[in-house]
């Protein structure tokens, strides 16, 4: 299929992002829209190729980068062309895991494939090793395909276990999946259970703080339980988990009081920025160790902002050589 006129076609499609809603779409092209979400809308180009049009360039860049990391695997749709606000890729057919599990059981074989999916996410460099079941598609041959992977990259804080996947499975299938993990990978199961327990404890502490802002001896003892693991890497994962829980619970509290979600998010980010800056100024040795850990993990670029940009440009340089006509 030729993509020479794709830019002209996409120019006839206007996608606008909305707060906490699916995008607004004005389609003056001849393409048929087959779906839309928070970041963009998907249109069918041919029997096996679609184009996703985004509401802003940042979401498009993020999705493009995430997809590019998985192009050497069979888990992701193949990229055919891209522009500032669109990506043309394979059209993923099949049944999403949400629909599949409504009529079919979660077998140990399927659980094994889900674990393999998470392993692939880790190996190719995703920050968030997790995915919602509605974005995982069962193929006729039994293999999996994933879509909407932009939110798996360029993240500074993530849950250290597949929380989104487990939560989306529902109580019954969550327990079944965890039993399969326990049988196949006991150490992994034990680690996930540890972080699940820490998340639950974090929520209890948050609720206690909301009811009684003054720090009680009981609360102090509870907080000590959060610091039982002295390994630095696990401590940083735990710190990120606590921050994620705080952000999520505080969002719920503020939204219930009628505050605008964008304003709340900005205030939370500003709060954590001040806290981290204060901590780094007071404990410079910790910051130095943290930067060294990041250098070992991401190369010479130590910070989140610094390490993502070179990876992005490295990808674009390689990919654009292959698609100079688009």
Question: Order of strands across the widest beta sheet?
Answer: 3-4-5-7-6
- Whole-angstrom Rg: 22 Å
Poorly predicted spans? 297-326
**Could you say which structural class the secondary elements and strand pairing correspond to?**
alpha+beta
**SSE string, helix = H, strand = E?**
HEEEEEHEEEHHEEHHHHHHH
Termini separation: 13 Å
Bin the strand percentage.
5-15%
Estimate the global geometry from the Cα principal axes: globular
Largest beta-sheet details: 5 strands, antiparallel
Helix content: 55-70%
Mean pLDDT: 82
- Helix count from the secondary structure assignment: 11
How many β-strand runs? 10
Question: Mind explaining what this structure looks like?
Answer:
With 326 residues, this protein is α+β, with helices and mostly antiparallel strands. It has helices spanning 6-10, 57-69, 97-103, 108-124, 163-184, 186-211, 217-225, 232-256, 261-282, 284-298, 304-322, and strands spanning 13-18, 21-27, 32-36, 40-44, 49-54, 79-83, 86-90, 95-96, 136-138, 144-146. A five-stranded antiparallel β-sheet has the order 3-4-5-7-6, with helices on one face. A hairpin with a 2-residue loop joins strand 6 and strand 7. The longest helix has 26 residues, at 186-211. Residues 297-326 have low confidence and may be disordered.
